[in-house]
Amino acid sequence: MQRIYLDHNATTPVHPAVLEAMLPYFGTEFGNPSSAHQFGQRGRQAIEGAREAVAALIGARSPEIVFTSGGTEADNTAISGVVEQVLRTQRKSAGSAPHLITTVIEHDAVLNTCRALEACGVSVTYVPVGPDGIVSPDAIRAAVRPETVLISVMRANNEIGTLQPIEEIGRIAAETGIVFHTDAVQSVGKVPVDVNRLGVDLLSLSAHKFYGPKGAGALFVRKGTEIDPLLYGGPNERGRRAGTENVAAIAGLGKAAELVRADLAEISVHVSELRDRLERGLLGCIAGARVNGDPTRRVPNTSNLMLPGVESESLVIALDLAGLACSAGAACSSGAVDPSHVLTAMGLTPAEARASLRLSVGRTSTREEIARALELIPAAVARQRSVGPNREMAAAQ
Q: How far apart are CA 312 and CA 357, in angstroms?
């Protein structure tokens, strides 16, 4: 059976050159990068080379890159780090509780961090988005208070791919003197990302979203931005992230950053052509199908479609059995009973949210795979509509 992978937003296959770059650090190059001898210093050189590659990818300086275990840790470090630094400072004075601003469609790594901080007395404003899945900069500005210490808005949404107006929000943050963080996990490696153009102070990224290994990520911390560490221990990562570095994974992250920086324009053209071919085909042959989110202001590889008359979790299983891998939403929420918080925040009903399918292509996707997907998906939808409990919804479209 030909197997087709259309779930690149969940994770991407490791590039062969990335694997090759990692292998020595599982074997002969085993030294602790904090050791002064040659075994350790070769590991240190690999880390610093990766730091330079990641910095070059996002327009930063290498000392501003802090390696983490992935996007979730980077998000937690950014948000909790700012708040803890403020709280530690306020213990010496009588300041009011800090206030954060974020959006209702953030990744759970951001939302659950904010909720945990709320339980400790921090105030959080969750700004809504429009039906297109995009937040209004004016709504962000309106949420600013004198005690606001952080704004956190994702660059690209992991479910629908919409790109948020980060540059405009960055200007608001600069005008008001508020630290600005963006979760760029789903945009780095898909669209150009420049921390200076975006106007961010903190930016999270993850290697496995752009053909690197799982378990490796980074947080950009602009020079002069004060954050407390999430982990305490040794002086690793300039005191911002304790613990012996995962040299192999960091080397893989560095190589992935180098490769995607060189190939980004080519990858973008390739995936957008395939995504559009797939989307046009499905919209043309599945009655009532529509795109969730803004059809133009999004990353080039992602399509989220509402397919009335289906139940997406069941559809994903049926397609997997037929040889096609895709998603009903965020991979981190697989198996969740509740409908997508992103889609319901945009105004979809719970039934519509549960009838939505996420398809995400990558650099390894082919036209032949898209052609096969255009056979498998409509057939699976038709089968489910003919027997499923939502056939009345399909007939009403």
A: 6
